[in-house]
Amino acid sequence: MPASPSKTVAPIPPALPRPRSPPKYPENCGTRRLQLDAQILNREILFLEEELQSLEDAQPVSICCKEVDEFVRTNADPFIPQKRKHKSCSFLRSLRLRLCCSLSWLCFSSPRSPRLKKRRKCACACDRSNDCRSFLNGYSGFKCPTKCNTRRLTCPRCSCGCVWYCCPSCTGCCCAKPCCSSQCLCS
Amino acid sequence: MSVAELKERHVTATETVNALRERLTQRRQLLLDTDVSTYARNHGKTAISFSPTDLVCCRTLQGHTGKVYSLDWTQERNRIVSASQDGRFIVWNALTSQKTHATKLPCAYVMTCAFSRSGQSVACGGLDSACSIFNLNSQVDRDGNIPPSRVLTGHKGYVSCCQFVPDQEFHLITSSGDQTCGLWDVTTGQRISVFGGEFPSGHTSDVLSVSVNTSNSNMFVSGSCDATARVWDTRIASRPVRTYYGHTGDVNTVKFFPDGQRFGTGSDDGTCRLFDMKTGHQLQIYSQQYGENDDIPCVKSIAFSISGRLLFAGYSNGDCYVWDTLLAEVVLNLGSLQNSHEGTISCLGLSSDGSALCTGSYDKKLKVSYHFLSSKT
After folding, report:
1. Is B277 exposed, middle or buried (0-12, 13-18, 19+ CB in 10 A)?
2. CA distance from start to end of chain B
3. HSE of A139 in the Cβ direction (CA atoms, 13 Å)?
4. Which of B180, B230, B232, B317 is spaced 20 to 30 A from B161 at the CA atom?
């Protein structure tokens, strides 16, 4: 009797290729970063211990406050004028001097300036539209269109630094006047 | 050492740091027996009184076509330099408002400017990560601009602030977005020292401001986005002298108190603070009350009056508070006065004799103010 033929079993296909896992390289980046962080933390510990040590002998805050108070008390302050007269600071002296000179030029050189009576006071340098504390006496025609009697020192119509005065008859920018020597950047 | 061991060491070191910080906080609390305002009140100090018309705006400097970011006064001759978003710096005569110099910068994104001690040179820095030095006596080019005489390169981030060392014409301190400060020799263009960085213990975020101690020019203070201020000795770049904690937001501005022993800070947390340099104590907080839903304005710039009694602080909402430093009260808000700025007060500074205050703003203007009564002889 012939042997019964054995059943043919389909061959098992070879396993599909699979990518290999990457080789386990040493984690230089991670290790290096951790080492650096450890160094930084160790330094921080050292500094904190030094600071703790320094606080052992540190004076309390009240002593520091006393020093601040003494310093403030013993130093004059232009923004907190004393009641008695004192010398004005150089910046403000220069400013007042310049105001007087500028106003003198306006009085005597400008072809548009009205005839002026005797000047009694310099204008303040305010830029305000409310009542100012200084004013010019006897300057008829120099009243500002707003409530303030002061002279304006910068031309309100442009960005140049020329001197300009509040006069209803003076229209437009005064850049063309000889007084203005700075370059106007507004154009 | 293995990664696991390193991680374990890291955790242990972090716990040690936190424990030490806690001990430091407790030790400081024991020494915090008062603050400046409580001390002043207990010793009979009365508040400064200002009326709205006491501080006079005598000059409005117009000419920039962009936000003003920075300003500085000369030591003498009453000139001001300002730097703006329009990519220019302008030198003004503060008495006449006239512009003496106006120069386009190589990099339009300028953030800071400073005068040298003599007033002959101007330093400007910004997003180009460099600081350009201009000699005001140089010949202008055919476009009317002064070419830089030196460009200080080396920072790896924007230059946020610069200041010349007061008694040295050629030394400049810079602060940068690369977390470091630098000391430079402007004649050679070389960086003499780097303060901070990854290995030396320094700021851990962008440095936004520096102020050099006028009483001891070897010392300067820096303020950073890491919410700390640090005092440095220019002779020891490896580590700060001390680190000052307290703020809860970026420290945008720092300025030494006139006595050189204290300094003030201004921050995104809306407060100004006064610190003692030697002990590290926080002496006073200058803060307004805000509602829970209010946007808290950031402090952008500060300056002390010459006696230290007043602290001028410019805020992001256009306010410019004048604080009584001893009583921690606001005595005036320059931002609420007529003819005040119409935007953020980005910078401010006092003249060398302390008699005039210049403020710069996002409204493209600068304003010079003084106390009306102090002009009288």
Report:
1. buried
2. 76
3. 24
4. B317
Confidence (pLDDT) at A22: 62
User: Cβ(B217)–Cβ(B192) under 8 Å?
Assistant: no
User: For residue range B107-140, what is the model confidence (pLDDT) as tens digits?
Assistant: 999 999 999 999 999 999 999 999 999 999 999 9
Closest by CA to B115, choosing from B164, B76, B69, B150, is B164
B298-311 core/surface letters (b: 16 or more CB in 10 A; e: else) = bbbbbbbbbbbbbb
Report whether B192 contacts B163 (CB < 8 A): no
ipTM of the complex: 0.91
Kindly state the helix (H) or strand (E) to which residue B55 belongs, with its residue range: strand B55-61
Q: Which of A97, B228, B209 is nearest to B220 (CA)?
A: B209
Helix (H, G, I), strand (E, B) or coil at B239: coil
Q: Best of A68, A70, A159, A163 to disrupt the B interface by mutation (most B CBs within 10 Å)?
A: A68
Residue of B34, B96, B375 lying closest to A65 (CB–CB): B34
Q: For the whole prediction, is pTM greater than 0.90?
A: no
Q: What is the dihedral of CA A139, A142, A145, A146, to 10 degrees?
A: -50
| Residue B288 pLDDT greater than 50, yes or no | yes
Stated as kind and residue range, the H or E segment containing A43 is helix A28-55
Q: Residue A137 — φ and ψ, nearest 5°?
A: -100, 140
User: What are the tokens at B374?
Assistant: 């102090």
Task: Compare all CA atoms of chain B with the CA of A57 and give the residue at the minimum distance.
Answer: B279
The β-bridge relationship of strands B357-361 and B366-371 is antiparallel
Chain A interface, mutation test: which of B50, B65, B97, B339, most A Cβ atoms within 10 Å? B97
Give the phi and the psi of residue B56 in degrees, each rounded to 5.
-105, 130
Structure confidence at residue B331 (pLDDT): 93
